[in-house]
Every structure is written in C-alpha cells, then in structure tokens.
Amino acid sequence: MKPLLLFLLLLTGASQCGDSTTALDPVSDELVVRSGTSFGMCAGYCVKRLELAGTKAIFTQESHIDKQRYPTKTCQRAISQEKAMNLKSMARFDAFRKLPERFGCPDCADGGAEFIEMQFGNQTHRVEFEYGKTIPGFEALVRDLRTQRAEFDTCN
User: Fold this and answer.
1) pTM check: above 0.90
2) Dihedral angle of Cα 6, 10, 12, 13, to the nearest 10 degrees
3) Could you confirm whether the keyword Signal appears in this record (predicted)?
4) Where in the chain are the domains?
C-alpha cells in the first residue's frame, strides 16, 4: 500500500513540474518600467514620472523649487493587458541593462532630460538621455512611453 501511495504522490508532483506559465498573469511578473522627464531651470511641474508595473500605471508630477505652490500630484490608472504585454515585449531587460547610464548631455543648457529605468526583481538599470532624443535600439519603447506619459497630462 505504501509503494502505491508513494507512486501517486510522485506522479502528482511530477505533473506539477510542467509548464506552469498558463496559471500566471503574463504581465504581473517582476518587471517595473519607469520613465520621465525633468528640466533643471524650470518653474512649475518640472519633473514628470510614469511607473508601469503589470497593468498598473502611476503618474507623478513634482516641482524642483516651489513645492508650496506646486504640490506633488499623483494619478493612478489601469492600462490594458494588451498595452502591458506590448511594453513588456519592447523592454528587453537583458539588452537594456547593458546600455550605458547616459546618452548625450541630458539637461545641458536647460534642454531637458528623459530617463527610462527598468527593475526586474532586485536588478535595476537607469538610462538618461537628452529630452526629445532616443535610446539606440529602444526607439519604439521610448515612443510608447512618451505616448503613455502624454495620456496623463490631464492629471489633476
């Protein structure tokens, strides 16, 4: 009887070792993408950040100087599973983390700066670049994140 019970337990356990991805939400893994802009010589809401984790999007606007007149504003929305999957496919964390931390001269002569930061588990990599420019090999990702940030410009 014990060998039969042991066999059934092993068989049940082995069937659990197959492809477990079907039970997981494909966009709720550990990938977090942050994107934003900043302008050093600016009055008002000079820093804008978007954080995307799965289907959750959080947009924040801040001031460098006058936090009384321009208090931090935060909006949160859900994005579609399709947008989240599209973002995840463009992110390519392994390739992204090999990029240098800076392209060009972000915010030199008050030209503004943009950044993209990816976090996967306990690994984080941030790339800053000149406002309006792009990151080589990640042009589609940069465009997509700009579009998503623009959708939050009505954040109050």
Assistant:
1) no
2) 140
3) yes
4) 26-150
